[in-house]
Amino acid sequence: MSFGKYARRVRDESLPRAYRYRALRCAVGHYHPLGFHATWAYVTTLAVPSHDIRRDVPALLRALDVLEASRTIWLAEMETFAANRRAEKSAGRRSPRSAEKTALAMPRWPGRPSRLGLIAAVANRHRWFRQLPFPDESLSDGQAGDLAALHSVLDTVAVAYLAQPGPLSRTAREAIIAIDWSVSSGLNSSVLPWRQFAALLEYAAIWSVPSQTWS
């Protein structure tokens, strides 16, 4: 089913709460700009459920409102992007710029992101990151040591961000660059989830500048 059908199920008062809860999960499955679990953490945190969102119908509706507001902005952005691409193709440029492709692939909350929502998303993915298996034993001792150091730095950066959200340090940015290099060089495919977490952490930190006004 489409996102719209799941959204209507969330709002359908004739359905049991469990059905409406599952419909919200499916709606997030259709639209998850931060990744499924990070997006779920984002919208359910902003919904402020009384205890368990599965039993809190008003919170389900608030979470859906947050999700739909972002998706509406994203759809408008995609329409603009498509129109620009048509014009560029007519002018002879067949492929989008690498920066454009990278921007589309990175975690990003269309619209004005919530600091609280991003903190919840990072906290959720940090717990997941700590449970990931370490790169396999096919690595040399030197490679394994390098990745162990990167893992430690990324974990430390995440802990520091969650304790006091703000811009990343130079050491943290260098660690993220090193993780990108490890993935692009094919050093070990199990590092790819690290890169996904690092990208989310980097994005959240950008939007944690104290001078901003947050929801």
Provide an overview of this structure.
With 215 residues, the chain is mainly alpha-helical. The chain folds into two domains: 3-96; 115-206. The chain is built from nine helices and no strands. It has helices at residues 3-11, 17-30, 36-47, 57-90, 98-105, 115-131, 141-163, 170-184, 192-206. Helix 6 runs antiparallel to helix 9 (192-206) and helix 8 (170-184) runs antiparallel to helix 9 (192-206). Mean pLDDT is 85; it is low at 211-215.
**How would you state the average pLDDT, rounded?**
85
| Termini separation | 32 Å
Contiguous low-pLDDT stretches (5 residues minimum) are 211-215
Give the helix proportion (percent range): 55-70%
Assign an overall shape. globular
Major β-sheet annotation = none
Q: Report the structural category.
A: mainly alpha
Q: What is the count of structural domains? A: 2
Percentage beta strand: under 5%
- Radius of gyration equals 19 Å
The number of helices is 9
List keywords for this structure.
9 helices; 215 residues; 2 domains; mainly alpha; disordered C terminus
Could you give a quick summary of the protein structure above?
By secondary structure, the chain is mostly helical. Helices cover 68% and strands 0% of the residues. The protein has helices at 3-11, 17-30, 36-47, 57-90, 98-105, 115-131, 141-163, 170-184, 192-206.
Per-chain topology:
Blueprint: H1 3-11, H2 17-30, H3 36-47, H4 57-90, H5 98-105, H6 115-131, H7 141-163, H8 170-184, H9 192-206
